[in-house]
Amino acid sequence: MLPQASDSWTLGEAAHLLNRAGFGGSPQEIQKLHALGRIKAVDSLLNPTEPIGAIPVPLWATREQAIADMRERAEQRRMVQEATRTLSAEEAEKVRKETFQAIQRENRERGIEAQGWWFRAMLLTQAPLREKMTLFWHDHFATSLQKVRQPALLMLQNDLFRRHATGNFRQLTHAVLRDPAMMLYLDTQSSKRGKPNENFAREVMELFTLGEGHYTELDIREASRAFTGYQLNRSDATVRHNKRQWDEGDKTIFGKTGKFTGDDIIDLIFEKPEAAKLLAGKLWEYFAAEGPSPETIEALAATLRSAKYETAPVLREIFLSKAFYAEGVVRNQIKSPVQYFIQLLKQLELREAPQGYTRLALEQLGQSLFQPPNVAGWDWGKAWINTNTLLARYNLAGFITKGSQEAPASPPMAREDAMNPEAGMDSPDAAKAVAKAAKKKTPGDRMSNVTTVAARFWRGPDYEKIVPRALRKRPEEMVDAMIFRFLQTTLPAKHRDRFVALAKEKEGVVFTNHEVAELAHFMLSTPDYQLT
Amino acid sequence: MKTRRDFLRSTLLGASATWTLPMFVERTFAQLHGDAKDLAVQPVTGKDGPILVVLQLAGGNDGLNTLVPFGDDAYHRARPKLAKSEKQILKLSDYAGLNASMPWLASQFHEGDLAIVQGVGYPNPNRSHFVSTSIWETADPANRSNTGWLGRYFDNACPGSDPTVGISFNKTQPESFGALKNPGICLSSPELYRWIHGDKTPSAEEFFAELNRPDKEDPPVEGSSIAMPAGGKTGGVHGESNLDFLERVALDAQISSAKILEIAAKHKTRIPYDGNPLARSLNLVARMIAGKLPTRVFYVSHGGFDTHNNQGNTHDRLLGQLDSALKSFMADLKEQGNADRVVVMTFSEFGRRVGENASGGTDHGQGSCLFTLGQPVKGGFYGKHPSLTDLADGDLRFTTDFRGIYATVLEDWLKTPSKPVLNGSFAKLGFIS
């Protein structure tokens, strides 16, 4: 057990917890959490009152509709086959092409809608740790639309992660074995007796549970035979274990021999002590800091083992540990693009992002939801930052804080949020104007055009509320309040003084919303702001 | 040897400011280091040294329909739909010819400026796009390296260097640029490669520059060597704090942004280019070279080569775009008088299977061919064309290790020892004259 911190805590510590266990919040939200005391605050994050499903998914992503759609696809495939038999080769090709193009188009649109939906769920949820853990599992059990190609299956997987968000790691791994999106992503679907595919067997050991060095190539080959026969029924999204396609022979894994199934292998994996270590280390890195000491890992792994792989006790131990609030941990994590963007919107008390903007902005910053780069998930930390992404962040901040001034770094397009009634700026006018701008001239111009047009419809934050007029008459207080809002810390005197000087230049005249936005953009266009 | 600090100081002093500000520069740097003005020249990354353009063909280029072994019956047998007949190619020998979409490259072969390396690959090939790309970019077939081969070149051969030593025209940093000290920069569009701010008054820009300047002038690890472990993630330096790292990138962005915007605005090209992304990227490369950036390596990408379905037209079109973009680029360099300074090298993460698949496409394979192009190149065929009948699991067996190509480029073109960059010795191929 890691040494635990006392119940009393500072406002800065409360902000740190909300930033890491969630996506941050406004000063009021931080104060509310702080008032609970450390222990109750952690428990409130672990046991949210908001039910799963409070933010409804698009209709097509519900299980019932997904199954109905899969049936329809199966029917369409039959019709295409029928056409091949009855029509001329040319006509049949035409039917085939039209059918599959329509399906592809629909999948593309739904993929965009799924990304927008999850982004909004992370922004609006009252159960931030649940969403943050859902993102953790998405990175851990990485699965990409690029290969799976069926957004409904990714959304069902997302739902699985959300239900197990702070649940049992071992049970979740069993569920992932039978998760349709994962089966397509790591080829379990096509792994059959006599022709086993090693993909899932390898990744389940290397990336999901044990880590390199804790299994042999022979273990993988043998395990791959056990992972045969799992089949996704494409007409109802159910998965069953088809004994006829399963290699029922003896397999020897970790020195044990038996007629193992895939589930047996997962049970054998979880009997090994390393299964707890990999996850314990990853949780610490995700929430606290890179490079945990062997003692930290072992302490958390022991908790995980004694809790029979329930994750909630480990998370509780992390969030209540002294080490989590230590210098070098607090304000020393490079924000992921999702964290950066959601946290920014929450700090500005915004409940929406500019139309069509989020998906392209996240793509530019290097973290497209449902599209991790490979099965190992994203590279975190410093890998998020290069000269291009850093400038893109600065310009994103400019667009969000100011909207109507100048083109931001990313080219918003019309589609994404336009489809969703929850989205901001969803007037048909805005959608049309942005779409029209997207069609213009060369891409370089298009970027500027689109962003300029999108900006006309973006109102930006409510500065009257965030920085009230009365506060603007007291420059030092205003600057300190804004620094707390964005950084939840104090700045080196040198920087603070410059902000104060900038604010004081306007003393005696009205400090307009425009000037507040300028000041905010300055604070956000800094290396400091990339940390949380 | 100049330190990074000297360099940054002199660059800021010399920068004609867009948003790096004269006032800021004068007051802070100049007062502290009045003698720094003399040091405004970069000894290593000079403005007339050799330049390498790395051109990625992303997705796995089908080598067999790029350099077509039309004289081999096995080729026609394996590809009843996709095989090119003798009439559909530009013959380079009795055995092989270029896909007819590349007339200009064929002319360069005949003029002796195009080298084609055949059968390129590496041991124990991996058919994952990600893993294989990573292997090519890190030059590590074990796929364990945290740094890229070009990043190791920057670190090893370009000390104290300018952040523009390497420029990638991509949204994200290519793995090959991963470095301990200086990973170069990435930009997707010069117009957007700047801090965009409504307030254009000098004080606003000065303030921004100050906020984005490191408090400590020295980077924490000066003179790191190749033997040092990386920070575990591409781009990081071992022992460097997150804030130090962010400040370093912010400063690199500032310095390079000012220069790049200035050059992009000043140097337009008279040679017509196509409108596709590759042509646009190469156009930018040409303008950056014309603007005398001290860049050693430019990195551009041409995507879409993952041709699993109905490959025919798609693949021909992609190769046509490559041909046309390179033709414009080389003409541009010639007009500038820089044609003798530039070598272009293509690469792709793998070739494709010998046999076509049921959907009129080809699946991920192994060995493939690779081009190096430019006046300094000694044209012709290099490496042995792999057998189309002695296959490894349906794939061509590689005959030339890709690291031999890197070694040739590093030693004979960039004039640097290849061993510390590639962590081993690889036989050179002799395609640089």
Notes on the structure:
Chain A is an all-alpha fold and 532 residues long. Among the domains of chain A are: 11-47 and 273-325, no CATH class; 337-456, no CATH class; 466-530, no CATH class. In chain A, 58% of the residues lie in helices and 3% in strands. The longest helix of chain A is centred in the first third of the chain and has 36 residues, at 89-124. The radius of gyration of chain B is 23 Å and the shape is globular. Chain B has one domain (46-197, 248-422): Alkaline Phosphatase, subunit A (3-Layer(aba) Sandwich). In chain B, the strands form two sheets. In chain B, strands 1, 5, 6, 7, 8, 9, 10, 11 and 12 form a nine-stranded mixed sheet that branches. A three-stranded antiparallel sheet of chain B has the order 2-4-3, covered by helices on one side. Chain B starts with a helix and ends in an 11-residue tail after the last helix. Chain B is α/β, with parallel strands linked by helices and 433 residues long. Chain B contains twelve helices and twelve strands. Chain B has helices spanning 4-14, 22-32, 73-78, 103-111, 129-138, 149-157, 202-211, 242-266, 277-290, 311-336, 402-413, 419-422; strands spanning 51-57, 67-68, 89-91, 97-99, 114-121, 166-168, 185-186, 297-302, 342-347, 368-373, 380-382, 400-401. Classes of the chains: A mainly alpha (532), B alpha/beta (433). The interface between A and B is large, with 50 and 52 residues.
Descriptive tags:
heterodimer, A: 532 residues, mainly alpha, two-stranded antiparallel sheet, 27 helices, 58% helix, B: 433 residues, alpha/beta, Alkaline Phosphatase, subunit A, nine-stranded mixed beta sheet, three-stranded antiparallel beta sheet, 34% helix, globular
